[in-house]
Amino acid sequence: MMAEEIIVYLQREGASRGRTTGPSSPSRQRALAGTCPDPSLDSSPEHREYRARGRPRMKTVIVVHGGAWAIPDMLAEASMAGVKNAAWAGDAVLKNGGSAIDAVEKAVRSLEDDPSFDAGHGAVLNIDGEVELDSIIMDGETLATGAVASVRNIANPVSLARAVMEKTDHVMLTDRGASMFAERIGIPIADDLVTELERKDWEQSSSFPVGVEKFFNTQWGHDTVGAVALDSLGNVACATSTGGIRNKMVGRVGDSPIIGSGGYADNRSGAVSCTGHGESILKVTLARLILFHMEQGKSATAAAEASLQYMGERVKGCGGAIVVSSTGDWAASFTTPRMAWASIKEDVLHCGLNPKEDFTERLK
Questions:
Q1: 48 is in an annotated binding site
Q2: Which of 142, 145, 224, 240 is catalytic?
Q3: What structural domains and CATH numbers belong to the chain?
Q4: Member of which family (predicted)?
Q5: What is the C-alpha separation between 91 and 103, in angstroms, rounded?
């Protein structure tokens, strides 16, 4: 699409909707000023609508997970409630015509705000008793990606990751650089991320050190959250957020913020958010592996199961993944004892915690 076409379209749309033809967003300003290097990659609503003209509207899908590990019974009910709340939040965005990227951010923010999960408020503590957070968000239409790693005192790292995607020329910022960027754009500092429960669990688990793989088969495991979505324009997106592994070394970064491992989204195939033993997921680039299998013709479920099986056989890693294809096929698969997940498609909510579990509820 030529820049001149974009300008004419935006001017026409502005007039037809009763708006002035002046710029209404930074992306629109760039297009009208002729400074947007590639209008086909612009993520503004106007450009998304333009690129979707002539395509059939899709039935929206949202899938979320609260982490794959040996979730104890004491957290089971809260975990299920949390993922359902997150799915409802993301679905509300999609029902109101919002984008997939908006939906996954909203869903993951809900999980980050819930102390039942290892992300944002209530995240696990590193070996020094501090919270360090990682997150990624990816737009399947443009492949635009933002990520942050080892950030502290940020309640919603997924939103900081999105800011990296939209407000910088980079894909990832870490630690001090991410904190400086957050301060510059006005994201507030949060000093209340450490919960009393996590402090007590950290003190107890510090007395019984085990290998990181074993965390995912014990009550001391605590893992990632994530979401994938398909919007009405046919665009997919993913978001993943985590506090990592309890007692991790300071500065340890797992799979979650790494493109192709913790998450990946591409309109040509689908979107994935992964969870589990980060080092294992990194070694097999799990998210991209799942999409590779889908590109070879496998269903979302078959692709996820084949990839998780390969990870188990090749590096003895366990974990889980949620998937949505560009046609609306979706899956929630895991090889750990439990994973809390929920999905909404066509006003039907699916959710589960244990292997092969799938409860359904019609929303209206």
A1: no
A2: 224
A3: 3-52 (no CATH), 61-362 (3.60.20.30)
A4: Belongs to the Ntn-hydrolase family.
A5: 7
